[in-house]
Design goal:
Blueprint: E1 9-11, E2 28-31, E3 36-42, E4 51-60, E5 70-79, E6 84-95, E7 101-109, E8 119-125, E9 129-141, E10 147-157, E11 166-167, E12 172-181, E13 195-203, E14 207-209, E15 215-224, E16 230-242, E17 246-254, E18 266-271, E19 273-274, E20 279-289, E21 295-305, E22 314-317, E23 323-330, E24 338-340, E25 346-348, E26 351-360, E27 369-378, E28 384-395, E29 400-408, E30 411-412, E31 419-427, E32 432-433, E33 436-444, E34 450-459, E35 470-472, E36 477-485
Parallel strand pairs: 3-24
Antiparallel strand pairs: 1-2, 2-3, 4-12, 5-10, 6-9, 6-11, 6-12, 7-8, 7-10, 8-20, 9-31, 13-23, 14-22, 15-21, 16-20, 16-22, 16-23, 17-18, 17-21, 19-32, 24-25, 26-36, 27-34, 28-33, 28-35, 28-36, 29-30, 29-31, 29-34
């Protein structure tokens, strides 16, 4: 693992920068401890340390069949700074398995809920069903002092009722914890940072509607500092839906317009055919928009009717959980991975070399194959790769299973575990065609520096079930983000 401080660097010519030369002339140095080049920036015009101390805990096929209120998992996190918030993220498989069944999963810190409100996920099914599928939720908790912080992951039936919950079924399950600088006083452009100006806006807004009129779910005003950066926009919240042959579309608007470069940031919540009973669950929608101007940006999360449909059915948002919009500025492709402070010390940057691909309506109907493949140049042999995919997907056939996964150079990750997600569906009302938000996010260690083929695939589950009828990217955005991260610094 790389350390926070690079203790010994020397001036380096291009021949000494063996992995690659830096994009900015004169910034290449050689890290004598790890015998690799670094690209050195400065901390000028910057008053923040946006992301630090990333830690990942991973379990594959945990298969925890607990129902009652209890801490299922514990991560002992060593918080370094008093002024940061703790960002927690769950990426894994969750299930409720009873008619009108409801389950809740949540995080505690030092034995308590987050002071700003519980960071949780709720799932509800209106009919007896068995949806074993990947789920994601996250949040930032502020006001926790530095030091050892037990972060515990709980579950229970809503209202302390047993609803046959299941966690971690036959896939990768991650808890990712990191420190986020949310101090509102920073104003600088931070030219050496790949990520900066992170703002999270919490809200408790409940919508319940059958109207096909456009609905603005949430509005925030964000002060963008640099016109050359991309803006990453993330919505986390609970979406509920019933009604067959209906489709609701959710999307971001910036100063009244959808993103045009590279394309819109959107998702769907739909039941195109089959059983029309209620499904409620927390989801994450995550994409980037380029060439937005600096200055105040009015950012809206909006719901409307899908093209080609005449009804949204009945839709709810914000059902009994905390929702949020997170916005951050990103310098795509920036290779600076260390900065020198006025004291002369050189510190590694925890996140850099961010690349982004975003497609719209890929409509991948094949049940097994490579959905998208991208080429990524990994600069450091000591970094890990984080891959995030935000799309809409479904597995339609009753009693069948599909798996979405990330591969690196045709191999699955081995450290800490695979990045894979399963979607098994059984419903007493029969098969259901319901494209919904689908989110994959994981970290892979021990990948060599150099060119890496990153593949987003779908195929059969390693569970003994027949291959499902899958569909990926139905009429919506598919976003892929790949970045290098140094864990623990």
């Amino acid at each position: 693992m790389a350390s926070d401080v690079i203790n010994e660097v020397v001036e380096a010519d291009e021949d000494s920068c063996q992995i690659r030369s830096c994009s900015q002339k004169g910034t290449c140095r050689k890290d004598c401890t790890n015998s690799e080049s670094v690209c050195l920036g400065s901390y000028s015009d910057c008053e923040e340390w946006p992301v630090s101390n990333i830690q990942i805990s991973a379990w594959h096929a945990g298969n925890w069949g607990h129902d009652n209120a209890k801490p299922l998992l514990t991560v002992n996190y060593n918080k370094k700074y008093d002024w940061t918030g703790i960002k927690v993220q769950w990426r894994g498989n969750l299930r409720v398995h009873r008619a009108s069944g409801c389950g809740e999963w949540w995080f505690t810190f030092n034995g308590q809920d987050c002071p700003q409100g519980r960071i949780s996920l709720r799932k509800y099914t209106g009919r007896l069903s068995n949806y074993l599928q990947n789920s994601a939720f996250e949040g930032i908790c502020e006001g926790i002092p530095k030091g050892s912080v037990p972060v515990k992951f709980y579950l229970d039936g809503c209202g302390n009722t047993n609803w046959d919950l299941y966690t971690g079924w036959y896939q990768a399950n991650f808890i990712i914890v990191e420190e986020i600088d949310t101090r509102p006083t920073s104003k600088g452009l931070c030219p050496s940072l790949s990520v900066f100006n992170i703002r999270e806006y919490d809200m408790n807004i409940y919508y319940s509607t059958s109207s096909t009129n456009l609905q603005v779910i949430a509005t925030v005003v964000y002060e963008k500092r640099d016109p050359s950066t991309a803006l990453r926009a993330v919505w986390k919240g609970n979406l509920g839906k019933y009604g067959s042959n209906t489709c609701a579309r959710f999307y971001f608007r910036f100063n009244g317009n959808e993103c045009g470069n590279p394309n819109t940031i959107d998702t769907v919540c739909s039941i195109l055919s089959g059983d029309s009973s209620w499904i409620r669950e927390d989801v994450v929608v995550d994409g980037m928009c380029y060439q937005l101007p600096a200055g105040p940006l009015k950012v809206e999360f909006v719901m409307g009717l899908c093209i080609g449909y005449t009804s949204i059915g009945h839709v709810t948002t914000g059902w009994d959980t905390r929702e949020s919009i997170r916005l951050e500025e990103v310098r795509l492709g920036l290779d600076i991975n260390a900065i020198q402070l006025p004291s002369g010390k050189i510190y590694r940057l925890p996140v850099y070399n961010i690349q982004h691909w975003q497609w719209h309506a890929i409509n991948y109907e094949t049940d097994s194959g490579v959905i998208k493949e991208v080429s990524y140049t990994k600069h450091s042999k000591t970094s890990a790769l984080r891959v995030t995919v935000s799309t809409a997907a479904r597995q339609e056939t009753n009693g069948y299973c599909s798996e979405w996964r990330i591969r690196f150079n045709s191999s699955e990750c081995s450290s800490p575990t695979k990045i894979d997600t399963t979607y098994y569906m059984w419903n007493e009302g029969g098969s259901i065609n319901s494209p919904r938000p689908y989110y994959i996010d994981g970290i892979c260690k021990n990948l060599a520096a150099g060119t890496v083929a990153v593949k987003f695939e779908v195929g059969s589950c390693n569970t003994g079930h027949s291959l499902g009828n899958s569909y990926t990217g139905w009429n919506t955005m598919t976003s892929m983000i790949v970045q290098e991260v140094y864990l623990g610094i």
